[in-house]
């Protein structure tokens, strides 16, 4: 994976598309995505595409990643609806613990519709919100609308900020190179750290004392 991303500059826009779409889907659909650096990935993708002067590709990637983010959250919603959230909590977990699940559930319960929209900008809640919404039996149409609005605000903003931000830096080649190196390094470092953290969390036993979040009130638009 690290080799694939490190060679993006020579592989071109196709590699950017494959990596971005697969990572965004995982982050939005499965609990493993809780530990992936989706924000920095989207920004880095825009920076790399700028080195190829692929403006059309940046806009099309924004649209495709937006759709994938919505589809991924639909998968997460149905996972939560089918399994609940109790099995997620781990004894001694730094992220997947009873307190964090309760906080995420309370956030969704308190803010309802807008919690799903805002969750796109909160890394760990971004992955948990669809599962909690599914477990709480949030109306599917309402959830789909909320997660779509969130994706529209999240994906294009970061991809295009990276693309046009890097375009400005083309006047300073050394700074442009530095931006690419930092973006890629941050993504690789974040992914490596995420994999390590995921393994650490999953190695801990399930917290049997953790309550499922199906009891929270059905989130409504507010």
UniProtKB/TrEMBL annotation:
Name the family: Belongs to the DedA family.
Major localization listed first in the record, in broad terms: membrane
Q: Transmembrane residues, as ranges?
A: 12-36, 56-80, 143-166, 178-196
Record Pfam families: VTT_dom (PF09335)
Q: How does it sit in the membrane?
A: Multi-pass membrane protein
Keywords attached to this Swiss-Prot or TrEMBL record, sorted alphabetically, are:
Cell membrane, Membrane, Transmembrane, Transmembrane helix
- This protein's species is Lentzea kristufekii
Q: What is this protein called?
A: DedA family protein
Q: Which residues form the VTT domain?
A: 36-163
Where in or outside the cell it occurs: the entry states: Cell membrane
């Amino acid at each position: 994976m690290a080799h694939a991303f490190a060679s993006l500059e020579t592989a071109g826009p196709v590699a950017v598309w494959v990596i971005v779409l697969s990572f965004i889907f995982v982050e939005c659909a499965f609990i493993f995505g809780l530990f992936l650096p989706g924000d920095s990935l989207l920004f880095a993708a825009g920076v790399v595409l700028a080195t190829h002067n692929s403006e059309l590709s940046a806009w099309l990637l924004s649209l495709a990643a937006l759709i994938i983010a919505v589809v991924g959250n639909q998968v997460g919603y149905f996972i939560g609806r089918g399994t609940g959230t109790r099995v997620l909590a781990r004894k001694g977990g730094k992220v997947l613990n009873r307190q964090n699940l309760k906080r995420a559930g309370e956030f969704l319960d308190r803010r309802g519709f807008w919690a799903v929209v805002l969750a796109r900008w909160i890394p760990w809640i971004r992955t948990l919100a669809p599962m909690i919404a599914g477990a709480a039996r949030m109306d599917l149409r309402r959830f789909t609308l909320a997660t779509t609005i969130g994706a529209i605000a999240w994906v294009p903003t970061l991809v295009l900020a990276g693309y046009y931000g890097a375009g400005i830096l083309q006047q300073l080649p050394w700074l442009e190179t530095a931006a690419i190196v930092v973006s890629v390094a941050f993504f690789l470092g974040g992914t490596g750290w995420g994999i390590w953290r995921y393994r650490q969390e999953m190695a801990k036993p399930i917290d049997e004392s953790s309550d499922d979040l199906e009891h929270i009130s059905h989130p409504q638009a507010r």
